[in-house]
Amino acid sequence: MSTRSPRWQWEDFTEGLSMTFGPKEVTRDEVVAFARDFDPQPFHLDEEAGKASLFGGLAASGWHTAGIVMRLMCDGFLLDSSSLGSPGLDTLKWLKPVLVGDQLRARMTVLASRPMKSRAHVGLVQTRWEALNQRDEVVMLIESWGMFGRREPAAQPEG
Fold first, then answer.
1. Residue 159 domain-assigned?
2. What is the pTM of this model?
3. b vs e for 4-14, b when ≥16 Cβ sit within 10 Å of the residue's Cβ?
4. How large is the C-alpha radius of gyration of the chain?
5. For the chain, how many structural domains are there in total?
6. What's 87's domain CATH number?
7. In 3D, which of 95, 71, 94 has the Cα closest to residue 23?
8. pLDDT digits 0-9 by tens, 19-44
9. Residue 88, class by beta-carbon neighbours within 10 Å (0-12 exposed, 13-18 middle, 19+ buried)?
10. Across the beta sheet with 88-94, what order do the strands follow?
11. Which member of 6, 80, 97, 114 lies 3.0 to 4.6 Å from 59 by CB, making a disulfide possible if both were Cys?
C-alpha cells in the first residue's frame, strides 16, 4: 500500500483551471455491449435502427458517454487525487449524438472552489465537464460539485 500523498488535493483546484484528457474511440462492440446491459433501446443496439432514428447511425447511450467521460477523468487525475466523491450533479445535458467511430475527449474546468463549512478537512470544487468529439463539438455537459481532501485543513472553530 502506498503512503505517498495524492498529487491533486483541494488546494490545486483553482478557479479557471482546465484539463483535457483522451481521446477514446467509441467502438461498435462497446456501444452494443453497454446498451444490451443498461439501455437496450433499438438505436443503441442495431445499425439499421440507428440509421432510421434521429441519430442517423448507431448511437452510444448518453449514460455510456457519461461513463466514458468518468473513466477519462479517473485516469487523467481523479485516481491520483484526494477525491471524496460528489454530492451529485447540478446539470447533465446530452447535446449531440455520439456515434460509433467518434473520438471523445473530456475537458474539466474549475468554476469555483471553497472550503466545506462543516468539515475542516474537506474542500468543495465546482466543475464543468465537457465531452468533445473529433470535430471539437461539445456532445455532453456536466456541472457538479466534488469533495476533495485538503492538504492543510482549517482549524475547527472553538465552541
1. no
2. 0.91
3. eebebbbebbe
4. 18
5. 1
6. 3.10.129.10
7. 71
8. 999 999 999 999 999 999 999 999 99
9. exposed
10. 18-25, 103-115, 122-132, 138-149, 88-94
11. 97
